[in-house]
């Protein structure tokens, strides 16, 4: 059922010229390659489009764009939209609110839970199903809202055990950590080094409950970083993603902020009509429209448009897949995010440990491996299953599959540890050979170099080797060397934690390990054959 639905969606998208040219895909290389093909096909003197704005970070977002200057949206076939998907003067979404000609249109597009345009505070365009015959009609010219610079004087919150904990704190209200400019000097609950996740949010990342979910967001900009957490517990509350969208919109609509990345850690995958009440049978006719995966895609487009920066990135990392109505809806949600250009990954132990550190666990403070294993978070119901769903959706979009938890990771770990151990053993053999060279000719025997090996006093050699291993200073040095190699191997293993490999990288790693193993085996076999031959002659 999933495969047939995915194929049907792809057929619909491939019928549009924008999709064939790479518009709307999460892989920028596809769009770039298709742009070159289109340019070659049409030639340098191709047909003109509605505007010919030069490629830039804020394309079609200033009066230099004739469409923008005239306060009208760029045509849907705008050159930048067709080839690169970087036009910031496009309609962000197309609502599916249909208007009955026999009824007055004053109630059309009046409910934000039904109209996607109203939901993200965008006017409906001619591309919407309502054809702008609604209350949310896009007014032209668009009135520009003047944004203000965030205040820099800091807060005046009184010093106490729980200072700056409430939203009344001016720093919190502008989505900033407290600093040395504040009366609290940043030594408060809103200090950058004291970010704290409530226990009820942390518990969502330990155990998957039906209704509750937790979300932690990190906003990253030029000389700017801020974290916040959100929690959902009952049906009557907005989802954590809906709370996040409201908060970020409040930030970008009021203040000047240089934001370039939004990283979202969420306990379960954003919903896609799994929590609609009443449950919808046909998505396009849904009255509840609970689709947070789609909402995050709209948020990304909204942020890019408000900040006039087309390269703002968003990453969503989730621990558990949301399986309220089976895996079909879960995959649809992931597919929706990928199509919007959002980077979707499973939440791995490296990031999960940071979440645990933000609310240290009494029994496992700083050591979370046992806690991770106790909750089986690597197993089928969590990371492994999330990875499987993500890869199915990536494959449906023609993107390469990525592996964050797979056999290749275990092979890489064993390769590093085993080969490090082999290198230590080989080092010991080389040290012994150096000792052998030094004692090749006992002092009592003076002979020609060609006869030295024939007159070795084996007992003297054995005594010297034993004396070397019992020498305290050399023994300590050897142990330090081994410990250093072991620490280096462990650091290498740790560096691969959270690293994803696509099909090409997996193949390259496997080939290199095979080659190295084959070469070592050949050398060892050759040496053993030689020694066997020598032993037979003796």
Automatic annotation (TrEMBL):
Alphabetized UniProt keyword annotations: Nucleus
A single Gene Ontology CC term: nucleus
One Pfam family per UniProt: APOBEC_N
Boundaries of every CRC domain copy: 103-193
Record's subcellular location: Nucleus
InterPro entries linked: AID, CRC, Tesmin/TSO1-like_CXC
Major localization listed first in the record, in broad terms: nucleus
GO MF entry, a single one: hydrolase activity, acting on carbon-nitrogen (but not peptide) bonds, in cyclic amidines
Family as reported in the entry's similarity comment: Belongs to the lin-54 family.
Protein name per Swiss-Prot or TrEMBL: CRC domain-containing protein
